[in-house]
Amino acid sequence: MAEYLDLYDDWGRPTGRRIQRGEPLPAGCRMLLVSVMTVNAAGEILLTRRAPEKRYAGKWEITAGCVQAGESAAEGAVRELREETGILVSEAELTDCGCTIHADFVHAFFLVHHDIPQEQVQLQAGETDGAQWVTPQMLLVMSEEGKTVWKHNTLIMRHFADVFRGCGI
């Protein structure tokens, strides 16, 4: 089934245009991505490992993905979290942590507090092949050791600064 993406302008506003996922982006247009940091009551962060067939295979990351045509950023965040982890949350449970505009995409960030045992995380075949809860300090160490998707590290520290407060960064 074809997946379609809405297109956004230089300011992150919808253009009213869409493309099929995988098609080249028209000049001056961006797609919308979301990242969701799930934090449990112990202050640990849920990470998933990218499946072997994915770009950055074997690297750990917070939940992330493309927002589909017709979805808001929050709707896309809820869907991505459900698809990649099996975690069900509502848009009202998300905390908006801002966005960053890049050359090819608008990247929105959300925080959600949710408790689920690691063994109950439902991985999405072809997307994720592992899950673990880590402390903010451990995520920093994993980042330094090259075990995470390096492109996301700075953005995660910027948009979820409160989660890392007290970690010496």
Descriptive key words:
169 residues, alpha+beta, Nucleoside Triphosphate Pyrophosphohydrolase, four-stranded mixed sheet, three-stranded antiparallel sheet, 4 helices, globular
Structure at a glance:
By secondary structure, the protein is an alpha+beta fold.
Structure description:
- The protein is of the alpha+beta class and 169 residues long.
- It has a single domain (30-164), classed as Nucleoside Triphosphate Pyrophosphohydrolase (Alpha-Beta Complex).
- The protein is 21% helix and 33% strand.
- It contains four helices and nine strands.
- The strands form three sheets. A four-stranded mixed beta sheet has the order 6-3-8-7, with helices on both faces. Strands 5-4-9 form a three-stranded antiparallel beta sheet. The protein has a two-stranded antiparallel ribbon with strand order 1-2.
- The model has no long low-confidence stretch (mean pLDDT 93).
